UniProtKB/TrEMBL annotation:
Pfam families in the record: Acetyltransf_10
Keywords of the record: Transferase
PROSITE patterns: GNAT
Transferase among keywords: yes
One GO molecular-function entry: acyltransferase activity, transferring groups other than amino-acyl groups
This protein's name: Acetyltransferase (GNAT) family protein
Taxonomic lineage of the native organism: Bacteria, Pseudomonadati, Pseudomonadota, Gammaproteobacteria, Cellvibrionales
Organism whose genome encodes this protein: Chromatocurvus halotolerans
InterPro entries in the cross-refs: Acetyltransferase_Butenolide, Acyl_CoA_acyltransferase, GNAT_dom
Ranges in a coiled coil: none
Top-level taxon of origin: Bacteria
Length: 138
């Protein structure tokens, strides 16, 4: 298996949705909202992707300022390609495109929670989420 890795290579919403469906991330993303998925892909400013010929098999999709913080929004690897080092390589290539002081930040899927600690991330329990439709109180 010869996997190629690309940075900011064009990805269609259909390719992205297909990858999410073939990984565990599809169940936690609004894959049936095409407008949302198109916006997700087109508004990310750092996408590292893994390809098996013309098939998208992995993605590290981030929003970043490249200097201080990089939010790794999606890390997905096709189920048939998992446990082959693709996810680690996607993260390493993401890091290579960031400044030396830039932190890589993510919210782990429940099934992947222990994975990140094993590869060098530190746990931070101070994440807060404001859901759509919620109001900020006084």
């Amino acid at each position: 298996m010869a996997i190629s890795f690309k940075v900011n290579h064009p990805i269609t919403a259909d390719q992205f949705i297909g990858l999410l469906e073939s990984s565990t991330l599809g169940e936690r993303r609004p894959i049936h909202d095409r407008d949302c998925m198109e916006g997700v892909v087109s508004n990310s400013n750092l996408i590292v992707s893994a390809w098996d010929n013309s098939v998208l098999v992995g993605i590290a999709r981030s929003v970043t300022d490249f200097h201080y913080a990089c939010y790794l929004s999606d890390l997905a690897v096709h189920g048939n390609y998992q446990r082959s080092g693709i996810g680690k390589r996607l993260q390493a290539l993401t890091q290579e495109h960031l400044g030396p002081l830039c932190k890589l930040i993510l919210i782990a899927a429940p099934a992947a929670n222990s994975y990140y600690g094993e590869i060098g991330y530190t746990h931070n329990d101070r994440c807060w989420v404001l859901d759509p439709g919620a109001t900020i109180g006084d």
